[in-house]
Each structure stands twice: as structure tokens, then as C-alpha cells.
Design brief:
The chain is built from 13 helices and nine strands. It is an alpha+beta fold. This is Putative restriction endonuclease.
């Protein structure tokens, strides 16, 4: 059985390009739990606050309940739920899951596959991350989910990426190796350092490796852009989330001061970022409302 294919094809609720990484985040949490504790069951009452934290930090900027993936992931053949009296999942209701001491675990078949092949767990984690989140968030998600993926590199079991390698070079040239938000343009020994080609609409959510979906950002502003602390308004100005808090002068200068600043445009030979991709990021990633300029 191709478990990598199974985890990347988990059914996700979808409507108009909205992000719903609830099941993938629960799967990552469950894989991290398996890596640390083996096949021990996970009580909903214990998982709830951890999964809620993952959803709050890496999910869409909308309220949601960890009870939904805890129940609905059972339909994908990777996760099973049982109550204290031996019944299956009582449904997505928080009260029922708590009152009936619902506990979840990876299915016996998947757990057996993980025991038989130590390389499978990091392969599954990498695959889930690749098809659901931008690369700048992968390390943070693994840390929050309690996953140690050092064995991936050691075993050479990294899933080949399917992203267009030419995308980065196109974006760098279009923006002349300069952060479109702050203007940073550092080089070391003839090579640009600290600059990334950022997707506006995430690649994992049908964002194309195309110049109209990319922007050059420094490493700091790329991370904040993917976390929803920074965004782009319809008038092509930088937005800063009111939820971002920076008390020191460095944070105020490097982040707060960006509010309302026009973003740099690419060279005339290249098209600008598409309005639809900007609107997607504002709806699905940016933590609104925005600070006043």
C-alpha cells in the first residue's frame, strides 16, 4: 500500500480555495505522538488544547474546533476513534467527545507499516507538509507537533519536491534581488543571501509557480508573510496584522513601520502579482484586521 499517496489524498473540506488543514495537522500531531510514545491512544481531552494551538497558529484565520478533524479523519482509513464503552466516534461534538472519553490513534494497519519501515514516518511527514503548507513553515510545524525529522536527511528519504526550480530565479530577476517590502538586498561573495521567492497563493493550494504568483521577500518578511503577520492590500501596500506584537525598536522598525508602505513592483518586462492571488492571501492567511498605517 502506498501510504505516502494515502496521506496526501486525505479529503479536505474545500470551498472557493479556502484552506482547511485540520486533518493534515491532526495527522502530523498523531505521527509526532507515535514517534515519541508508539501506538498509545490519544484522549480527546488531552489532544484538544494541543490541536487547537496548531490550528490557531498554522490554520486559516477563522475560528474552528479541533473536534472536527478528530472525528472526520476516521473516514480516510488512517485514524480510528473509540469511546470508553468500546463504541466508535460519537461525532464531532466537543461535549460528546469529552464525556465519553473518546480516544484516537492511527489505524492498526498504518501503525504496523510504521513499525516495519522506520523511514516511513519522516516520509509521511514530509509529504503532508509539502502538499499543505509553505516550506518556510515546515520546521515550526514539526516543532509544534513534536516531530523530529533529523532521520529524514540521515536516511536520504526526502520526498522529491515537485516545485518549479526556475520559479526562484524568475522572481529574483524580476525584483532585482531586493525585498519588495523593505528593500533588503544583501549579497555575500557574489551570491544573494537572506532573500526568498515567496508564493502569494500557496503552492499547496493551487498557487502556480508563476511570476504572477510570486514576490521577492527577505527571510524575515517571508516568514511573517506566510504566518499571516504581513499581507498585501488591494492598493499594493503592505498590511501589518494588529495581532502582531513587537515591543522593541527592532520589531517596530522592521515590521510595524511597513504598514501602508507601497510594495516594490517587478521590472517592466515582468507582470505584477495577480489580484486574485493577493485576495486569496488576504482571505486565507493574513490575520486581519490590519494596523493603521
Amino acid at each position: 500500500m502506498d501510504w505516502v499517496e494515502r496521506v496526501t489524498e486525505v479529503r479536505r473540506w474545500s470551498r472557493g480555495g479556502e484552506r482547511a488543514p485540520h486533518k493534515p495537522l491532526l495527522l502530523l500531531y498523531a505521527l509526532g505522538h507515535y514517534q515519541r510514545f508508539g501506538d498509545a491512544p490519544m484522549f480527546y481531552s488531552e489532544v484538544e488544547k494541543h490541536l487547537a494551538g496548531l490550528l490557531r497558529e498554522f490554520g486559516p484565520p477563522r475560528r474552528t474546533s479541533p473536534s472536527y478533524p478528530f472525528h472526520y479523519l476516521t473516514s480516510d482509513g488512517l485514524w480510528e476513534v473509540q469511546t470508553a464503552d468500546g463504541d466508535g466516534s460519537p461525532g464531532p461534538g466537543v461535549g460528546d467527545l469529552r464525556a465519553r472519553a473518546a480516544r484516537g490513534r492511527l489505524t492498526g494497519e498504518l501503525a504496523a507499516a510504521l513499525r516495519d519501515d522506520p523511514r516511513l514516518l519522516p516520509q509521511l511527514c514530509r509529504a503532508i507538509l509539502d502538499v499543505n503548507f509553505e516550506p518556510s513553515l515546515h520546521d515550526d510545524i514539526c516543532a509544534a507537533a513534536g516531530i523530529d525529522l533529523e532521520s529524514v536527511e540521515a536516511a536520504g528519504a526526502v520526498i522529491p519536491r515537485r516545485r518549479d526550480r526556475a520559479f526562484r530565479e524568475q522572481i529574483m530577476v524580476a525584483y532585482e534581488y531586493r525585498c519588495a517590502f523593505c528593500g533588503y538586498d544583501g549579497w555575500l561573495n557574489g551570491t544573494a543571501v537572506g532573500l526568498d521567492a515567496a508564493h502569494v497563493r500557496w503552492w499547496a493550494f493551487d498557487g502556480p509557480d508563476d511570476i504572477t504568483n510570486g514576490i521577492c521577500l527577505c527571510a524575515l518578511h517571508h516568514k511573517l508573510f506566510d504566518k499571516g503577520a504581513l499581507g498585501i492590500a488591494e492598493d499594493r501596500r503592505v498590511t501589518v496584522s494588529v495581532h502582531y506584537v513587537g515591543r522593541g525598536p527592532a520589531a517596530r522598525h522592521q515590521v510595524h513601520a511597513l504598514a501602508g508602505r507601497p510594495i516594490s513592483t517587478p521590472q517592466r518586462a515582468f507582470p505584477d502579482v495577480d489580484d486574485q492571488h493577493i485576495a486569496w492571501h488576504a482571505r486565507e492567511v493574513f490575520r486581519s484586521p490590519a494596523r493603521a498605517a
